[in-house]
Specification:
By secondary structure, the protein is mostly helical. The chain is 48% helix and 2% strand. It has 19 helices and four strands. 20% of the residues are buried.
Length: 528
């Protein structure tokens, strides 16, 4: 079909319309011409409707307008997120009402909507004292914990709410229910572990291990400790993944909990032998000691405290009744450790009348452990052979040490926990660390003053004071083996010297805000 017009390339009037595509093609040069098949629709808004477009709707396949479509999609997102969080129908309705109140029924679309839904979900659960962790909510909605925390603060301020304090015991119970590593454990044992965990978590509150910190790492550390105490094989990586805690932070909390229990164990006769490496083996005795301290009346705690430091009957009975899986070995051979020099013997049935020093009991314990690990086994062929013990001497294995009747295994208020006596009154770890840092900076300040005085006034310098800062010691400091503490001057010493030379107050330097002090007194002063 011949068409009017000329070719855009060769300028010849040889244009032909293609029957299949409807495009104009030059029969001379074969160039396809630009599209000119525009068919205008006359009539404006009241004209004929197209096949896939309908005026006043949201698009293909929908008869809803824009507002209804927006509300429908928002409700769909709310239902999906609440299902992942495991909300009941009642709590889900509370979240929907809160979102509708904040958005004034308009809802919305965008990345901010899931964050708002997560914040409202956290607030609703927090109000019912069954709080979810922010990390868990953030992992479900795919949001950063800091962004979610800012949204929670805005929700609380907008609705003028006052959230209750987080119940750490309820959070621990929720963690025990959600921990998949305990699915293969019987329900009775999980209940016993939960009571033990409740005891330890309230002890951690007493020792300020949770003050100003996230609760999830401490809960994960206690769950790991209790699992090891009950000889359940769990991995810390699995626990922190299920509880949404950090591995490094959980290890730090576990170490702090172990160190606190080691401090309590110093009251035991063999307390000097208890370390963080064997605290699991000694934890039953430590917990029994703390339970005994709880049972003491307040008026009797100051009376004869040295004589009531441990359950002597239980310890000596365990030592005497312990049976070993060795050939030709019996604890009867070592009854001499429990005999007095006058041959009168030890009256185990009435331990209140027995007065043994803690050094004697520690010696008994050490000798029993040493001889139990060095037993000569006689085989069937008559040959002597020596077998090393694969496990440590386990005292509490002969009887059940946990009865679940401890006062601290039940939930208490913070004031009641602080008033309890469990054998240790510790300071917050951050406070102790801060005090040590202050002392270290004070030593560095004094050393810097001596170095400055040695340079500015060589004749007045006392060589005994500056002997440790000699150049030879600084020269060989870099040759120290890796892992040892270097004695040489580091960057902090140079910063302190600079601040002292600019007459900065020593109390300000002791606080450790070097960057602010340098910007205020050094770089802004005009002289370096």
């Amino acid at each position: 079909m011949q068409a009017s017009g000329s070719c855009k390339d060769c300028r010849k009037a040889a244009l032909v319309r293609d029957d299949v595509t409807g495009s104009l093609v030059c029969s001379s040069c074969g160039i396809v011409q630009p599209f000119d098949n525009y068919d205008p629709q006359l009539g404006g808004l009241n004209g004929p409707q197209g096949t896939f477009v309908r005026v006043g709707t949201t698009g293909t396949g929908s008869s809803l307008n824009y507002k209804d479509k927006k509300i429908f999609e928002a409700q769909k997102i709310i239902d999906e997120l609440l299902f992942k969080l495991g909300f009941s129908s009642e709590k889900s309705n509370e979240v929907r009402t809160m979102v509708a109140t904040i958005t004034e029924g308009e809802y919305g679309q965008g990345d901010w909507l899931p964050v708002l839904i997560g914040a409202c979900s956290y607030v609703v659960r927090r109000q019912s004292n069954r709080a979810l962790s922010i990390a868990e909510v953030g992992s479900v909605i795919g949001c950063d914990v800091y962004e979610l925390g800012r949204m929670i603060r805005r929700v609380v301020q907008f609705l003028n709410l006052k959230l209750p304090e987080i119940d750490i015991v309820s959070s621990l119970e929720l963690a025990f229910r959600k921990c998949g590593s305990l699915n293969r454990v019987s329900k009775d044992k999980v209940d016993k572990m939960l009571r033990q965990g409740t005891f330890l978590v309230q002890c951690a509150v007493k020792w300020f291990l949770t003050t100003g910190r996230r609760l999830q790492p401490m809960i994960a550390a206690i769950l790991l400790f209790v699992a090891q105490l009950n000889q359940i094989d769990v991995r810390i990586e699995d626990i922190v993944t299920e509880i949404h805690a950090g591995v490094a932070t959980t290890r730090s909390r576990y170490k702090e909990l172990s160190e606190a229990l080691v401090k309590v164990a110093q009251a035991l006769p063999w307390g000097k032998d208890v370390t963080t490496k064997n605290i699991i083996k000694n934890a039953p005795f430590v917990i029994q000691y703390m339970e005994m301290k709880l049972r003491l009346q307040p008026a009797k705690r100051g009376e004869n405290s040295e004589g009531c430091r441990f359950d002597l009957d239980g310890v000596v009975s365990d030592c005497l009744n312990k049976e070993f899986d060795y050939v030709g070995y019996s604890m009867e051979n070592h009854s001499q450790y429990f005999e007095t020099h006058n041959g009168s013997g030890l009256a185990i049935d009435n331990p209140e009348k027995v007065k043994l020093s803690h050094e004697s009991l520690s010696l008994i314990y050490s000798k029993v452990c040493n001889e139990a690990s060095q037993v000569n086994l006689v085989g069937e062929n008559g040959g002597d052979r020596r077998r090393k013990r694969s496990q440590e001497f386990d005292l509490p294995a002969t009887r059940e040490w946990w009865n679940g009747k401890s006062d601290m295994s039940r939930k208490h208020l913070l004031k009641q926990i602080i008033e309890r006596d469990i054998g240790l009154d510790a300071l917050p770890p951050s406070f102790v660390t801060g005090c040590l840092a202050y002392e270290q900076r004070r030593k560095k300040i004094n050393a810097a003053k001596l170095r400055i005085s040695k340079i500015m006034h060589p004749s007045k310098t006392n060589m005994s004071d500056t002997e440790e800062f000699s150049s030879e010691e600084h020269l060989h400091a870099k040759k120290k083996r890796r892992g040892r503490k270097k004695i040489g001057i580091d960057w902090e010493d140079f910063v302190i010297e600079t601040l002292l030379l600019h007459h900065v107050n020593e109390d300000e330097i002791e606080k450790g805000h070097y960057k602010a002090l340098l910007g205020l007194h050094v770089f802004s002063s005009g002289c370096l």
